[in-house]
Amino acid sequence: MKIRALTLFPGMFACLNESIIGRAIKNGKIDFEAVDIRAYSKDKHQKCDDTPYGGGAGMVMTPQPIYDCIQSVDPGHDYLRVYMSPKGEKLSDRLCRDLALGRDLLLLCGHYEGVDQRVLDLCMDKEISVGDYVLSGGELAAMVVVDSVSRFVDGVLGSAVSHETETFSDGLLEYPHYTRPPEFMGLKVPEVLLNGNHKEIDRYRRNTSVDLTERLRPDLLEDKADGGV
Ligand code: SAH
């Protein structure tokens, strides 16, 4: 899968070079690049922001560099073009799966007060939010999308089944994990996990999942009853 993040701060995306996603990029499962919008500015100082018409605080990203950057990266409109925005559809497990199965992704990262509305009207297909709070830029949000979507791309996770047992995959929170040692600071690993009886272990994990979900996220069980998640 190809993902392009359009940004004024490409260096921020260095985080993606680490760990599981870093490996997926290195071995070509994910073809990721952060594209510097500033390189497309026709302003003699490569300026990419200006004061808002109508007044008010902050700066707005100008349309020309973004427009030209999009035309250069995606001249045939092959990518799903997404603007990272607190006004967008809230990112969820379902949306991540859908995005992973869909077209290549172009993620536009706003900064400052945001982006001139005309470039959004002209170029974008969709807006995605990572939650009901405001970030200072779309870069962290875009990295959340790259990470969470990549997990559903074939070959990115070590074991093909790993994301099928995760929290949200079946509308439940995942059961707790334990590893060695069997006792730590007086706390023991639940006996059932040590006895090697896989039927009992499955039953224990399922029950703990349901209990946790009832306690911490009862809304997920309602969604499940409605056929959601
Ligand atoms: N003035 C805007 C917020 C601008 S924040 C408003 O009130 O709606 C600057 C940039 O950060 C935005 O252009 C957007 O790209 C990004 N951003 C902020 N919060 C976000 C969120 N919750 N999800 C995704 N992107 C977000």
Write a short abstract of this structure:
This protein has 229 residues and is an alpha/beta fold.
What does this protein look like?
The chain is 32% helix and 17% strand. It contains 7 helices and 9 strands. The strands form 3 sheets. A 5-stranded parallel β-sheet has the order 2-1-6-5-7. β5, α3 (93-101) and β6 form a beta-alpha-beta unit. The protein is elongated. 24% of the residues are buried. S-adenosyl-L-homocysteine binds next to β5.
SSE topology string: EHEEEHEHEHEHEEHH
The largest sheet has its strands arranged as: 2-1-6-5-7
Main sheet summary: 5 strands, parallel
The best one-word shape is: elongated
Give the mean pLDDT: 95
Helix content: 25-40%
Taking the alpha carbons of the first and last residues, their distance comes to 24 Å
Count of DSSP H/I helices: 7
- Output the radius of gyration: 22 Å
